[in-house]
Amino acid sequence: MSVLDAAAAAAPVLALLSPRDRASLLVAAAEALTEAADELVPLAIEETGLTEPRLRGEIKRTAVQLKLFAEVAAAGAYLAVRLDAADPDFVLGPRPDLRRYLVPLGPVLNFAASNFPFAFSVAGGDTASALAAGCPVVVKAHPGHPRLSDRTAEVLNSVLPAGALGVIHGQEEGVAALKDERITAAAFTGSLAGGQALAAIAAARPRPIPFYGELGSLNPVVVTPSALAERASSIASGFAASVSGSAGQLCTKPGLLFVPGSFDADSFEGVAPHRLLHAGIVDGYTRRRAEVLETPGVTVVVEGSVTSDGATPTLVETDLATLVKHRDTLLQEAFGPLSIVVRYTPGEPLGSVLTELVEGSLTAGVHVGSDEDSPWLHELVTSLQALAGRVLFNGWPTGVAVTPAMQHGGPFPATTNPTTTSVGTASIERFLRPVVYQDAPAALLPEPLRDDNPWNVPQHRSPAGESPNWGALNG
């Protein structure tokens, strides 16, 4: 496969680039993408049905991601350099000179998402973080926007080194690439079934590779009695906007809202139909919506609709007992503009119920009253932390900030690896591995491990003579 040949050839070239040179490439990619927006956005509208404002915002987000990782690359802290000086008096016996840092894994396979044709696709966060790590990227394009994928790659390849970014199409081609020994890691955003199948392939290789899959999420949100009493109207309107935005085709859409009483659904009325991304999503959402509507004990609040031309929001209501009884039906993601309002009784142990019922999610949220504090609330927040990678207060999970502290990941089935993130600067760690040089001659040390530090990267040093004082805790 020529794309894989090119990626394998580019791997050592990218790995040897200095942090500054790598950063310059990412900035150039961001600028090229921004300059091509007027050409790319109409193509994205045609292939996905997403709106121009949404897509232009997404291009801006994607360019910001690339520039953020340029900053990460230039700083060099991601290399995590640790230098332990040789110590003949080390308390466990003589310690050799040890120098540790992180090196790029090699070519990364990125399975692009349908719902973010820029931010989680050819030029998206997985690509940006892998390139920042020094890894070439092979993108398995999503069939929902093939022409956009090719053109986006052409734009980026006008400024990137040969082989740094390639695109392949087709399910069989994607599976073949995942099995190829030249691929050293894979990232995926998509369905639970698809992600599990690909993760199994990655694990079954003669040399298994890390597979970072973002699969599915319910993103439960709890409204406390105090919050509902203070601002019921604004909570309702924010919920409606979060569920209906981009026709609910977001991995962070709130699929469950727990409220202690009645809920005003007026904000859901009158939302205009929005085209779903492709026929597969129309079919899947239609089936899932029918399952929810046909569940005993579920009341339709806003019926909504779904056709091949578009969907409007569907909102249903039930109680906690029904949710528990029909958990197998109701506690599955509906990828589209549908959400379930669950009534609960104030004071009941909602935190423990959520821990038992809801599987891992990307996010979990709680709306609280002014200065609200109680043992019940603390238990609830602890439970939300246990099931999600991001816990929100008085906000909605849609809209993932591109920033260093962001965590976009969570316990399975939200992701296949709960210790990593696909958004934020920590996502670079997925495509690096540690190497230690022991007692290496100075002339053979790579730049980040040298005492003269020609790349000027942060170095954490452990001088000789410290070990007898470990555990003294002298502040």
Secondary structure elements and pairings:
Blueprint: H1 2-15, H2 19-35, H3 37-48, H4 52-75, E1 81-84, E2 98-104, E3 108-111, H5 125-133, E4 137-140, H6 146-157, E5 165-168, H7 171-179, E6 185-189, H8 192-204, E7 211-214, E8 221-223, H9 225-244, E9 256-259, H10 279-293, E10 299-302, E11 305-307, E12 310-312, E13 314-319, H11 320-325, H12 327-330, E14 338-343, H13 350-357, E15 361-367, H14 375-387, E16 388-393, E17 432-438, E18 459-462
Parallel strand pairs: 1-18, 3-4, 3-6, 4-5, 6-7, 8-9, 8-15, 9-14, 13-14, 15-16
Antiparallel strand pairs: 1-2, 2-17, 10-13, 11-12
pLDDT averaged residue by residue: 96
Domains (count) = 2
Radius of gyration, in angstroms, nearest whole number: 25 Å
Name of the top-level CATH class of the largest domain: Alpha Beta
Give the count of helical stretches: 14
Q: Which oligomeric form is depicted?
A: single chain
Distance between the termini: 57 Å
Label the CATH architecture of the largest domain.
Answer: 3-Layer(aba) Sandwich
Instruction: Label the structural class.
Output: alpha/beta
Q: Can you say what the CATH homologous superfamily of the largest domain is? A: Aldehyde Dehydrogenase, Chain A, domain 1
Poorly predicted residue ranges: none
Q: What's the count of strands? A: 18
Helix content: 25-40%
What global shape is seen?
globular
